[in-house]
Amino acid sequence: MKVRLKRNLIKGLSLALAILPKRLRHRLIRSQLQLAYDLPEDMHFKIAETTHELEGAFALLHDAYVEMGYMEPHPSGMRVTFYHLLPSTTTIVGMYRGEVVSTLSIVRDTSHGLPLESEFSVAHLRAEGATIAEISSLAVRKDFRKTGGMVLFPLFRFLWIYCRHYFGVDYIVMASHPKRSEMFDALILFSPLDDKKVTHYGFANGAPAVSKVLDLRKAPMLYASKYGDNRDEKNLYRYMVPPEMGGVVFEAVRLPDRRDFRISDPIMTPELMKHLFVERARALDGLTEEQKRTLISHYSTKAYLDEIPQVQQLTKDIQLNLRRPADPRIEVRCHGLIAIPFSNDQGYPLTVTDVSNSGLAAKCGFTLEINKVYRVKVAVAPLEVIELTVRLRWQNLRGGLGLEIIRHSSAWSDFIRRIHPNQMDEAA
C-alpha cells in the first residue's frame, strides 16, 4: 500500500511539474540540489585503467542498461562497444571500498565519428573547427542512486575538468532519454543540440532519445551566473570548476598527472585487450570493415599481433598484411614552429595534433610547399622543446598538414615511449 501510494505521489508530482513553464521547472529542480563536499574516505574517482576497474564499469553499465531496457543481456555480463576499444575514449569510474559504483565514458571525435551520429548531426560544431566529445555509458549502482548525487556529481566534476583541461575538448554532446534530459538541462546547463526527437534510438535498444550539447568554453560563465551567489551546497560553480578558477579542492577526484601535452590517456595493453575485450566481451565480433581498419590502425604493432590471434585475422581480412601498417598515432596538443632549415626565418606557428615515431599531423595557417624539407620545433612539455627534420607530404584547405619525420633525436623516441609505451614496439 505504501509503495503504491509513494509511486502515485511521484507520478502526480511529475505531472504537476510538467505543466509548469520551463524556467520555473528548472528553478525548482535546482532548488533540490544538495552537493556533498565531504565524501567517505574510501571513495574516489579516477580513470579506469585496470582489468578490475574496467570489468566493474562494464558490468555496472550492462546491469543498468538491461534494467532500463537499453540492451538485451549479454553472455559476458558486460556492455562493451567498439568505441571502448579506441585510445580516444576514456572511461571514468567512481570507486567505493574497491568496487565500481558509478561510471561514464567520454568518446572524443575522430574520423570514425561519434555514437550519436547514427541519428543526430554535429556537423555545425565541426564546421567551427571545434573539438567534440560525447558523454556515453553513464551508470550508477542501484544502492547509490538515492544518495543525493554523492557519486554522480563528482563524476561530472571529473568530466568537466578533464574534458576541458586534459582531453582538449570544446563541446560535449550526449544522447539522453527525454524523461531524464531535463535534469541535465536544469543542473548541468546543457541545451538542445537540435530539435529532433528519435523514437527508436538504436544505440539504446530502441529507446527514445534527444540530443544535448554544452560549450565547455562558456560553461564557467553559465555556472557563475546561475550558481555563483548560492551557498556551497547549492553552488555548482564552486563544485565544478578547478581551484585556480575559484573551485574547491577535491582530493577524491584524482585527475591524471600530466607532465606533457598529450590529450589522451590510452590504457590498452595486449594482455588487457586479449583477456577483457576479446575473450570475455567478444568486442571484435561483428565489426564493420571501417571499424576493422580503425582498430588495426591503432593496434598493428608486433606485441598485439603476437598476443592476439583475432587481431592477426583482422589484418588478413582487410589485407593490411600486404604492406607495413603506419605507426600508431597518439593525439596531443603541442605548439611549435615550422621553418626552412638553415634560414634566418623564425618560421610559422603550428599546432601539432597527433604524433608517432615516424610522422606527425598539425595545423598551420600558412601555405607551405609539398615535398619540401622543413625544420620543426615542438614544445612537447613545459620547458621541453624537440627539434625535428620533416618533409611536408600534404596540406589541405583547412590548414591541416601531414609531416613525415626524416630525422629526429632520441628525445623524440623517448617522448613517444613516455606518452604511450605500448605503441613503441616494432610494427609487423
Description:
The protein has helices spanning 2-18, 22-31, 51-68, 123-126, 153-165, 178-188, 219-227, 236-240, 270-280, 289-298, 302-307, 309-317, 410-419; strands at 43-47, 89-96, 99-108, 132-140, 171-176, 191-201, 207-215, 330-339, 348-355, 359-364, 373-381, 384-395, 400-407. With 428 residues, the protein is an alpha+beta fold. It has 4 domains: 1-31, no CATH class; 33-245, 3-Layer(aba) Sandwich (Aminopeptidase), CATH 3.40.630; 284-322, no CATH class; 330-423, Thrombin, subunit H (Beta Barrel), CATH 2.40.10. The protein has a 7-stranded mixed beta sheet, sandwiched between helices. A 6-stranded antiparallel barrel has the order 8-9-10-13-12-11. The chain starts with a helix and ends in a 9-residue tail after the last helix.
